[in-house]
Amino acid sequence: MVRSNERMSARVAAVEGLLAYAASKSRWSRRALESAHRAIVISSELAAADPAAHTGLLVRSLRTAARLLLARNRAAEALPLAQEAVALARRVGEGHLIQALACLSAALAAEGRHAEAKAALAEADLLA
């Protein structure tokens, strides 16, 4: 059990490192997006093993990738990630949900879906 916890902690640290790396790079860096996608894969596995402990990390990974895609004007690719982040964040808690809704709003606005973007922001405002 101790070895399993150590392995889990190492994987969480790996995701944290990938997210930090992605955030530190230019929006045009190919490696930033690769790091964010790798963080999604690992955090998905962690969340599957222990949803209560790791779903929030998966939400952050999805948001990071969505924001990188939005910065590259790739809203169509960012939108499903932002939508998944919101769906998962609804189970995790308000802090994660507020941030996920803001990300979703940005993706919807970038897609020209302004009424839906406004609704997402309004929901976030109600929670804040």
Through-space gap between termini? 39 Å
How many H/I helices?
A: 6
Look at the structure and give the mean pLDDT: 94
The percent range for strand residues is under 5%
- List unreliable stretches of 5+ residues: none
Q: Report on the biggest sheet.
A: none
Spatial extent as radius of gyration = 15 Å
Categorize the overall geometry: globular
Strand/helix succession: HHHHHH
Task: Give me the count of strands.
Answer: 0
Walkthrough of the structure:
The protein is 88% helix and 0% strand. With 128 residues, it is an all-alpha fold.
What would the keywords be for this entry?
single chain; 128 residues; mainly alpha
Compose a concise summary of this entry:
The protein is mainly alpha-helical and 128 residues long.
SSE layout and pairings?
Layout: H1 2-24, H2 30-49, H3 51-71, H4 75-92, H5 94-110, H6 114-127
